[in-house]
Amino acid sequence: MSQREDRASATPGVVSDPSVIRGLTRRRLLTAAGASAGLAGLAGLLSACGDQAAAPPAVDTAGTPAWWRSQRLHHLVNFANWPDYIDVLNGRHPSLERFTQTTGITVNYTEPVSENMPFFDSISPQLKRGQYTGYDVIVTTTNSPALGSLISNGWLIPLDQAMMSNFRRYASSQVKSPPWDPGNVYTMAWQSGWTAIGYNSRVISEPGDSVALLFDERYKGRVGMMSDPWELGSIGLLRNGVWPALSTESDWRAAATTLRAQRDAGIVRGYYGQNYIDYLTSGQTVVSQAFSGDIYQARISGAPQLRLLMPLEGAMFWTDNMCIPQHSQNPKDAMAVMDYFYQPQVQAVVEYSIDYVCPVPAAQQVLRSPTGWAAQTLAELKPSIGVPVAQTASSAYVFPTGQMIERSRYYYQFENADQLAYWTSLFKPIAAGH
Known about the structure:
By secondary structure, the chain is an alpha/beta fold. It folds into two domains: 3-192 and 318-405, 3-Layer(aba) Sandwich (D-Maltodextrin-Binding Protein, domain 2); 195-317 and 409-432, D-Maltodextrin-Binding Protein, domain 2 (3-Layer(aba) Sandwich), CATH 3.40.190.10. Helices cover 44% and strands 13% of the residues. The protein contains 20 helices and ten strands. Strands 1, 2, 3, 4, 5, 6, 7, 8, 9 and 10 form a ten-stranded mixed β-sheet that branches. α6 links the parallel β1 (76-80) and β2 (106-110). α4 (40-54) packs antiparallel against α20 (417-432), α11 (249-264) packs parallel to α20 (417-432) and α15 packs parallel to α17 (372-385). The radius of gyration is 21 Å and the shape is globular.
């Protein structure tokens, strides 16, 4: 389907202009992904993990320093990403055009990743058979089981650390050696964001600074929660004062009890997918679990009453990651394009187009005082984007404050399929009313 058409119809009256709905699709799709992947996606993951348990993959030399030294550029790379998640100008991608001009490498850029688990299911048969997936770079998310399964099955090529000079120099501390991939062995961040709390400041003038706002009986029947079991379970853990990344199965059960009590008390109006923002902007809910990018976009597109709360207990920080699937035919070209996006000028152009958490802090200064290629490209983009470049440069949603970084929390990384199934069995029924 057309992602821009989907977004335009999802928020009546405020997002019909493509210049103000950019950046919403990527993160809003994740909620739908969590809901639809519950059965089909989980089955695929369990199958993959089961296959691994029965027949562990043979050790592959791909990704060793010696292997990387033997690789050569082929001047072609096939890049798979989410829809509407890169700079676009009259159907072109200026950042990719510049990459080709400076390196001679052609990029076949496609957008097949509309959900994490279905995309994983689409490439896992080839990976199981030791075949090329057709992609040299894929983008997948930390809070999806897909990334963990790709790593645990040995289906990602360890990166060439010698080709990560821009990353080493410019990457933010949030994406260097992250919990889901210590040492950045397999991944480099594409973009990030938070699942925090959105609220209507016209109704809630004093929100406080706690996740308890979502459990406040004063807003009974007007609280929105997410149906995604990973998001729902994580907020339950935060309510109990537990960091999700460090949680235990006992903590999960306690979080499920807390969330059931919230539901049974009538506090929750509903458990939503990507349409949660519609309920919040229309006033049907006055406080909700929310994605940082959605609140930013809603504010500039007609709902200035919305605010984002980063609670004291923390907000869930997620990252979409670039990685190289096993049996890639152009791995050296893949490394070149991945590291290219860590140039501050390039990231400035991308951020102005999509408004997610930038992995390159130095891009902020480029947006404040652009020169050369970046200045020209930003000027060309401005008519279609419709907001000043300085607004992106000053946005805490794109360049987070120290407090926002301090309050970022990471998702639990499932160790095996049994853990994933248990988590899902606890939290999915709550949203389903069981």
